[in-house]
Amino acid sequence: MIPLLHDFAGERVLVFGGGPVGARKARRFAREARVVVVSPAFADADFGAGTLVRAAPAPDDVGGWLDRVGPALVVAATDDPAVNAAIEATATERDVLVNRADESGTRRPGSVVVPATVRDDPVVVAVATGGRSPALSRHLRERLEPVVENAGAMAALTGDLRDDLREWPADQRRAAVRAVVRSEAVWEALDAPDADAQAVAAEVVADVTGESLR
């Protein structure tokens, strides 16, 4: 499998299944998408900003739900394998992305695996085991959380730096940005509320290139 990132802003995601797995998926996608969860019952859990619809769709009903919601992605998370199979088949026929939560290991071409993620926007790090070991994905995510801390601020800082250095020669610009990203002093400044990380980054650039940003 090749990992890709998909922007779900403004899209709809249809989740079949109201148990803990469906709730987790709904919360995940509700960060960006408009989520509709269809289930005869709902777990005592937070479904985020999802719209909950109390219904018990049979396999033949799946197409109608896709017609009504018009999703970019469908999640099959019910406790009925026949319904999940119908969800997968119908979504595939209509070229709609599908994530089948009750399967692990081998997956059909075109299916979607939802990885464990660590976020410090706009930075996103994803961990997946092909559905074979969710416990390992969670463990690795926890280990990565401290590594990714302040990465969002670093992305913003170096993005601004690249704009400032637009007129510099490409090799010099790359060396400057690489030095800032690798600088422990800059990372420490990003973690200190009263520190001026931009000033520290400017010092790093001057040390590496001999040129001043000011």
The largest pleated sheet is described as:
5 strands, parallel
Number of strands: 7
Indicate the mean pLDDT.
92
CATH topology descriptor of the largest domain: Rossmann fold
The CATH class of the largest domain turns out to be Alpha Beta
Helix content: 40-55%
Percentage of β-strand residues: 15-25%
Low-confidence region ranges: none
One letter per element, helices H and strands E, the order comes to: EHEEHEHEEEHHHHH
Termini gap: 46 Å
Please, what is the CATH homologous superfamily of the largest domain? NAD(P)-binding Rossmann-like Domain
CATH architecture of the largest domain: 3-Layer(aba) Sandwich
Task: Please work out how many helical segments DSSP would assign.
Answer: 8
Total domain count: 2
Structural class: alpha/beta
Widest sheet, order of strands:
3-2-1-4-5
Shape: elongated
Rg value: 22 Å
Structural descriptors:
Rossmann fold, 43% helix, single chain, 214 residues, alpha/beta, 8 helices, elongated, 7 strands
How would you portray this structure in words?
The protein is of the alpha/beta class and 214 residues long. The chain folds into 2 domains: 1-114, Rossmann fold; 151-209. Helix content is 43%, strand content 15%. It has 8 helices and 7 strands. It has helices at 20-29, 62-69, 81-93, 134-148, 151-164, 170-181, 184-191, 197-209; strands at 12-16, 34-39, 51-54, 73-76, 97-100, 116-120, 123-127. The strands form 2 sheets. Strands 3-2-1-4-5 form a 5-stranded parallel β-sheet, sandwiched between helices. The protein has a two-stranded antiparallel sheet with strand order 6-7. Strand 1, helix 1 (20-29) and strand 2 (34-39) form a beta-alpha-beta unit. Helix 5 (151-164) packs antiparallel against helix 6 (170-181) and helix 6 crosses helix 8. It is elongated and about 70 Å long.
